[in-house]
Amino acid sequence: MRYITARDFTGDRPWQALDIANIDGVTARLHWTDTPYKWHINDGQEVFVVLDGAVDMHVRGDDGAVTITHMKPGMIAHATPGVEHVAHPVVPSRILVIEREGSV
Questions:
Q1: pTM of structure
Q2: pLDDT (tens digit, 9 = 90+) per residue, 30-70?
Q3: How far apart are CA 86 and CA 40, in angstroms?
């Protein structure tokens, strides 16, 4: 059995990940960051869970308009394939990301 305290994980660089599990090609990874990611579109589903800190999730709609949702600990975002988005941490944050192995 392995136990992980999210608050204790700090990366050497933004978006560094601690691999937790790979279950039939789906990865669960704990990320630490204090810097925004990049706009991207996943090639599969993504589950994004804020465990510590706060993140502003920017999502671009089909019409090009961007909506921003302020995510606090305990909030979960589910991105379906084709949804363009970028996460902007408001403070240093720890995020659990579950997605297909090798996804963007």
A1: 0.93
A2: 999 999 999 999 989 999 999 999 999 999 999 999 999 99
A3: 7
Q: Give CA–CA dist 25/42, Å, rounded.
A: 15
CATH C-level class of 14-99 = mainly beta
| Amino acid at residue number 44 | G
Q: Could you tell me which residues are beta bridge partners of residue 38?
A: none
Strands 26-33 and 46-60: unpaired
Question: Which secondary-structure segment (H or E) carries 7?
Answer: none
Specify burial of residue 92 (Cβ count, 10 A radius: 0-12, 13-18, 19+).
Answer: middle
| Spatial distance between the Cα atoms of 50 and 54, rounded to a whole number of angstroms | 7
pLDDT of res. 103: 81
Identify the pLDDT of residue 104.
Answer: 66
